[in-house]
Amino acid sequence: MTIKTIQGTHDILPGDVELWQRIENATRRIFPRYGFAEIRTPIFEWTELFSRGIGVATDIVQKEMYSLPGSKGRSMTLRPEGTAPVVRSYLQHKLGHSGKIERLYYIGQMFRHERPQKGRYRQFHQIGAEVIGSESPAMEAEVLHMLTRLLSELGLDDFRIVVNSVGDTHCRPNYLEILQRSLKPLIGDFCNQCQSRTKTNPLRILDCKVTTCQELIKKLPKLSDSLCDDCITHHQELLSWLDEYGIDYHLDETLVRGLDYYIRTTFEIITDQLGPTQNALLGGGRYDGLSELLGGPRAPGYGFALGLERLVLLLSGRDNLKTKYTSPRPQIFLAHLDDGALRYCVNLAAELRDQGIHVLVDYEGRSLKSQMKLSNRLGSDVTCVIGETEITSGRLVLRRMRDGKEIPAEISKTGKTLLELIS
Ligand code: HAM
């Protein structure tokens, strides 16, 4: 039996990879316009980075991390997300020295032991961005503006931006108390997961997707009614900046997100085309306390991560983005008559490639006739046969495949003549 990919992982084959590159290139073009620089952090980190950063009661830390023993029994984990590693790196390398605001983005694999389904994998890719050192709601709106630019550049316009405020360390404990009290008489009617969340992470009950729970959630007190004045002002300022940028948004009081580090702003970009459970194309928010949770000084943070597989799913159906895979076409195929000529071809090919020319040479011992057929099949622009005569005279003949036109060339000027012939 042949070995296949592990469940929840996938290959990205030639023909598909072009769309991934298009998205990555658009990111690398657009994000620097907003001041973001790329950062690359390790694929695995100490487990405590995630348990402290994301929160021990979250699904990610409770059941989705791929952990393995490291040196002296200290546990290591394949990163399930990029925010905690970026803040770790920010602190480790003192990136925010003298009050500098850091804007960092990343593109890479993440790992979560989830039940694989469409849009949900065990190894997946995120494009993420983090701003560390700013508390400004205007900056939050600017990051959302950057996202709308990225998505519209990729031709995506049927999405909704959903925002909420989940309060901060001053007002949220108060809300949690009120929530617990209101849940008591109702909890028996909630799903099993919500019931266990009353003890571990009651806020997450608000975004349960089970239909019966959603009806019950409507009876619960609103988080917005418990926000303190500072959180209300922050939220309203964000909304006014979104208006300033002309960004359409929807308010959703139940948007609490699955990671514990969020305070105040949370947001998602959702689309109906991904199905009801995986409808989030990306999510993010503010995490002002994360730096301190990781042992650093106060460093307010804000960011998002976009699921690349989900974006690819949305875009791959579109005709204008479909790239039909064809192997790269040689500009010149160097056919050889014998072993000595093959050696000559290899050296000539190296010289031409150094000049930026795409060259192919056959190493499979094909006859000249078969090499000519192969060159034709590959769609080469030009074919050139090399034998004893060409090597001793230093002259060869370039044959343009599209019309059979043949022109002589000095071997030392092959590249120049070839480019003239095919231009
Ligand atoms: P998250 O909501 O866990 O947030 O993930 C962000 C996005 O990654 C999701 O909206 C989804 O598109 C994608 N995603 C998550 N899990 C999977 C999966 N198993 N398979 C495929 N795609 C997935 C975070 O990761 C935060 N670090 C975002 C953030 C950055 N908040 C502030 N800064």
Topology readout:
Blueprint: H1 17-30, E1 37-38, E2 44-46, H2 47-54, H3 59-64, E3 67-69, E4 75-78, H4 83-92, E5 102-111, E6 123-132, H5 137-153, E7 160-165, H6 172-183, H7 192-200, H8 211-217, H9 229-244, E8 250-251, E9 263-270, E10 280-286, H10 290-293, E11 301-307, H11 308-316, E12 332-336, H12 339-354, E13 359-361, H13 368-378, E14 382-386, H14 388-393, E15 395-400, E16 406-410, H15 414-422
Helix pairs in contact: 1-5, 5-9
Structure report:
This protein is 36% helix and 20% strand. It has helices at 17-30, 47-54, 59-64, 83-92, 137-153, 172-183, 192-200, 211-217, 229-244, 290-293, 308-316, 339-354, 368-378, 388-393, 414-422, and strands at residues 37-38, 44-46, 67-69, 75-78, 102-111, 123-132, 160-165, 250-251, 263-270, 280-286, 301-307, 332-336, 359-361, 382-386, 395-400, 406-410. It has 423 residues and is an alpha+beta fold. Helix 5 (137-153) packs parallel to helix 9. The protein has 15 helices and 16 strands. Strand 3 (67-69) and strand 4 (75-78) form a beta hairpin. The strands form three sheets. It has an eight-stranded mixed β-sheet, sandwiched between helices. A five-stranded mixed β-sheet has the order 13-12-14-15-16, sandwiched between helices. Histidyl-adenosine monophosphate binds next to strand 6, strand 10, strand 11 and helix 11.
